[in-house]
Amino acid sequence: MKPSRIIISGGGTGGHIYPAIAIANAIKEKQPNAEILFVGANGKMEMEKVPKAGYEIKGLDIAGLQRKLTVKNLSFPFKLIKSLAKAKEIVKEFNPDIAIGVGGYASGPLLRQAGKAGVPTLLQEQNSYPGITNKLLAKKAKKICVAYDKMERFFDAKKIVFTGNPVRKEILNINGKRDRGLAHFGLEEGKKVLLVIGGSLGARTINNSIKNAAKQLEENNIQVLWQTGKYYHEDMKSFVEENKLTNIKVHDFVYEMDLAYASADLVVSRAGALSISELCLVGKPTILVPSPNVSEDHQTKNAMALVNHNAAELVKDVEAPEVLGDEVVKLINDNDKLIKLSVNIIGFGRPNAAETIANEVFKIINK
Q1: Which letter does DSSP use for residue 252 in this model?
Q2: Which H helix or E strand runs over 36?
Q3: Of 148, 204, 294, 299, which sees the most CB atoms within 10 A?
Q4: Is the dihedral of CA 231, 237, 242, 244 positive or negative?
Q5: How many CA atoms lie within 13 Å of 86's alpha carbon, on the beta-carbon side?
Q6: Phi and psi at residue 348, in whole multiples of 5°?
Q7: Which of these ranges, 138-142, 228-232, 334-338, has the smallest mean pLDDT?
């Protein structure tokens, strides 16, 4: 049987890249000789992360439209025209059996050109509120794989497949890893652990809120495993050292997320789709602080899908610097509430998402 040829396009953030890699890995498990090409945006993190995962990637000179009036928007039409031409060339050269869009700048031009060339397309929509690119691409897509219910408000119900969001395989099993996690991160047994994650680039509000609450957390005997993001790492590290806060362990990026989740009694996180999917699978009680700096306020909508089922707590970004510390102390010491949140959030987990999406890919190809 001849190997399938598959393009996966999108990126920009870990929330798009890691699901894309998980889909590629699931495709490879089903068909080891499948030929997979990624297409991303030049200068974005996929150009580094995808080759590290063992896949070839080509870049388009595309950027998003800024929501504020800015000079950068003047170059958008030229970048779009250039990217459409390059995408057309990539599709013609690679001659794929299917093109998969995972969201992010590059998926628009690539999937548009794939569709025009008669290549079937599949979309993976991670959020509860789709971005404009996926709404436009949905008209031509054969299938749309989603992670939230009620998505027929945005897409043709006949095309929707409820799959959940794909996550990194190593995160799926954290059972029995707590002791290893505590040792790995230099944390003490017998003290509560707060895990703070603001996405792969970090989150200013969350970092400032933890900074404001640092003394309070120490006084309440709470240890903190803090992923600051690379932009904020030096400042936060200096703050911890200057104040001799031995209960706080600062990292720019945590690679061993299975051990981090295994160590945690409570998580503070942004409400990006990938973060939420991981938290559902590991069943961790969580306080979500949705980012206000995203299109259509989709992180708040993601968060509310859990909050409305008592599966997570929410603190607004604008209130977090003042109240996050109090909320953490109150919740981390309420064992009954922690158990309830954990039981409820795990009900939203979809551990076989990547495999389900890979099955849909091959159904389309084999037609």
Answers
A1: S
A2: strand 35-41
A3: 299
A4: positive
A5: 19
A6: -90, -5
A7: 228-232
Cα(328)–Cα(279) distance, rounded to whole angstroms? 17
Q: Which residue has the tokens 């992670």?
A: 147
Residue pair 341/276 in contact (Cβ under 8 Å)? The answer is no
Say how far apart CA 353 and CA 274 lie, in whole Å: 12
Return the SS3 of 108.
Answer: helix
DSSP per position, 287-300: EE---SSSGGGHHH
Q: Do domains 5-167+352-366 and 173-346 have the same CATH topology?
A: yes
Q: Tokens 């497949």 map to which residue?
A: 161
Helix (H) or strand (E) holding 129: none
Ordered alpha helix ranges (H), 201-319: 204-219, 233-242, 257-263, 273-282, 298-307
Determine contact, residues 127/298, Cβ cutoff 8 Å.
Answer: yes
What's the pLDDT tens digit per position in 273-288? 889 999 999 999 999 9
146: tokens are: 């989603």
Contact call for residues 159 and 144 (beta carbons, < 8 A): yes
Q: Which residue has the tokens 């969001």?
A: 165
Residue 45: CB atoms within 10 A of its CB come to 17
pLDDT digits (tens, 9 = 90+) for 235-244: 999 999 999 9
**Domain residue spans in the chain?**
5-167+352-366, 173-346
| DSSP 8-state secondary structure symbol assigned to residue 65 | P
SS3 224: strand
Question: To which residue do tokens 């959940």 refer?
Answer: 164
CA 162, CA 168: separation in Å to the nearest integer?
Answer: 19
CA distance 33 to 319: 51
- pTM for this model (two decimals): 0.85
Q: Dump pLDDT digits (tens) for 118-147.
A: 999 999 999 888 888 899 999 999 999 999
What CATH class has 173-346? alpha beta
What is the greatest pairwise CA distance in the chain? 64
Strand partners, 121: 99
Beginning with the edge strand found earlier in the chain, give each strand of the sheet holding 248-251 in spatial order: 248-251, 223-227, 193-197, 266-269, 286-288, 313-314
CATH of domain 5-167+352-366: 3.40.50.2000
Q: First CA to last CA across the chain, in angstroms?
A: 15
